[in-house]
Amino acid sequence: MTNSSFIRGEAVGAVLLITFLFVLVHSLQAQVNGRFIISVTDPSGSVVAGASVRVSARNLLERVVITNENGEASLIGIPQGELWVRIDAPGFTSQSVIVSNTENNSAVTVVLLAGNIAEKVTVTAERTQVSTVDTAKPVSVVGREELERKAVSSVGDLFRTLPGASTVNEGGFQVRPRIRGLDSNRVLVLVDGERLNHSRTSTQQSGIELGLVEISQIESVEVIRGSGSVLYGTDALAGTINIITRDVPPRHDQGFRFGGSLDTFFSTNEHGRRGNLAFTGAGRSFAFRLMQSLERFGNYKIGELKGTIIDGITSDGEVLNSQHHGGNTQAIGRFFLNDKNTLKIGYERRRAANIGSPTLVGVFNGFFPFSNRDKFSVRFDSAAITNTLARVSVSGFHQGQDRNFTNVLTVQPILPFFPGQYQFSETITRTNTTGFDLQTDWILGKRLNLIAGASLFRDKNQDERLLITSTTPWDPNRRTSNSRSVPNATLSNIAVFAQAGFRISSRVRLVGGLRADRFYTKAEPTTQFGLPPSLTPSQIEDLGLTGLTSGLDVKSTSLTGEAGMIVSMTDKFTLSARIGNSFRTPNIFERFFTDFGSVAGFVVGNPRLEPETGVNFDMSAKYRSDRFSLVTNYFNNYYRNFLSTQTAMDRNGVPITLPGSSPANRIQVFQTQNVRRAQIQGFEAELEVPIKIRLGYLTSYGNFSYLRGDDIDRDVPLDTISPFRTNAGLRWENFLKNYYFDYSTRIVVTQRRLSPAFLLPVNQGGNGGPEPGFVTHNMSGGYRFRRERFNFGINVAVSNIGNRLYSEQFVFAPARGRSLIIGTTWTIR
Known about the structure:
Layout: H1 3-27, E1 35-41, E2 52-57, E3 60-66, E4 72-76, E5 81-88, E6 95-101, E7 106-111, E8 121-122, E9 130-131, E10 139-143, H2 144-150, E11 165-168, E12 176-179, E13 182-183, E14 187-191, E15 194-195, E16 218-225, H3 229-232, E17 239-245, E18 257-267, E19 272-282, E20 286-297, E21 324-338, E22 341-356, E23 364-383, E24 389-411, E25 421-444, E26 448-470, E27 479-483, E28 489-503, E29 508-523, H4 537-542, E30 552-568, E31 573-584, H5 588-592, E32 595-596, E33 602-604, E34 612-624, E35 629-647, E36 657-658, E37 667-692, E38 696-711, E39 716-717, E40 724-734, E41 739-748, E42 774-786, E43 790-799, E44 819-828
């Protein structure tokens, strides 16, 4: 980092520290208010015991209380003013109400209506808690109960059933999301609001693995479709995913209460099994959660082959090299300094090993011997600091991600003509990320709310590469070399942001935000890294690589903004629209990677790259009652400066090559460049209709997505766009939600709207025709036993009932075949 960027980073750090001390001193002087009681009843006036009551406000840290046998939730230290209360209870429609605490000891009564449509809440869309109906951003929220009901092997599998989403890759660890046709680093992944993405992964070939977050530790997943850069910065181009992990139990005012949980998961297809054991405790001043999980998944099997022969798959359908195993450790402690201040400290250790790349066996074999993550985080929250400063959150984290990608090339000898070829390549990447975030919430009069803050992060990367070559694996005359494809490098970011919400009337609210980002990317002089010696000085200049081996600094600035409107036409019907910018800054890999590519040719970095940018427009209509829920959304996204690997040219337009095995067999040089403009538009809809029958609710549900993508520069369709995707299902559950049965189907229509190059025959480098569609069927059922302190649940599912052989669109490896899945949860709280 340059001296100026270092000084700026230290200045932001000093601001964060001063803010933290100011908030701590003022908030520790806060006076504790009296008792506030919320009574929960049904329409007949009968009390509702066991309901979950969440109380929050701009000037109040969220409190969670379970109603007692009298249907009452009692809270101490609740400030006067408007409070946002959300109540969930089995057999009733989830309800959010705004109540007023007008005196030191007051009480309110909330009446729950019988129903089966749950209100969903997001903290990601606006960096504060808000109902999904009351935000202009299209958002999907999947809670813990739904995760268990979907019986997915990994969090990546979840995106097969969400609107506007699909998946990339197969296997239990490497499945990644694609949102509105874009994937990899064009989708930002957060864990508890902190970046999982880092700047070392390739955008065109890789991206961050969601398998680095083990599913048994997840409380909910929030998916924002469309631009998210104003609040979260780079990479939030097509969408933002926030994986919220399971937290400590709520504060317990009477004594210290211990608890625990055991979750199990078993899948017959790949003999996959996972176990998660957690211990918890909570008192008035401190709460904790300790968790350990272990998992092991073998090679999965595909659907019925019917005589089809596929490379890398055995005659009985086993997909070779699709296995993985690992474990996860989590330790969290939360200190309740007083009624308005908390300090949370957490540590997480994820270990995954022997991660295969499905079907990648034979001549070329690729796998990950390990992919690990270690994270330490700390967060301080304070509420009601002054009359206008309602809330302050200061957080920091340090995360290390270490990954080993190994590939083995083995070409058998044909004596005496060909002696054979063997190449073993091992690339280890170590990326350490340090991040800080400051958020302040302001109440400026009765109509204006403001969220403002600053953030910074710094990725530091080091690579190691071992290359062994010989004629055969057992040849003693091996040649060993050590090199680096990427120099030691850092990418640093400093940003400030603000988002305001202005209520014109009780039914009309305007939202808008601005963000400014400054990036510093630096390559350091690194031993074992260099440019090919055959490149001439003029070619190095034409490629923009002058000074790369001796150290190179690249600086860039991004400004983004968004504006939207939410109009509540009635209490049940809402219209909204928003337009916003998004961007993704080129990362360390794209600016500096210089080595042989994974496919063919030699790839060089490009320090001159510009950020990819987008202009995203969304328009939504939402209707929600206790009997019917419908959400529709139209979007139109325009992108500039898309990055793509192109043939490298010199100043005269001549392709740059390197010496090969003969003068006639030279090696082509490629370089990542800003070359493409694209437009992606579409329509998304979600529907839920519960019908009350004698024993419970019969709910029909589903979502529909249509996407259309165009390469504007070449005037051809964009590939990797699935046009029509439908998920539909029928679920029955009794009134108290103890039992349920669920049937669902997934329909993906054949994609014929593809570029001419993609439609070419396979022997000419194309796909051989349109991308096939498919239909799959799934069933699940479960039972839940609930008491005040003890819960037990079991979920049984059969996925791909027909054992169909198919592949997710634009994914090479076939998908899983039929599998029986059994999951259990045991909880004491």
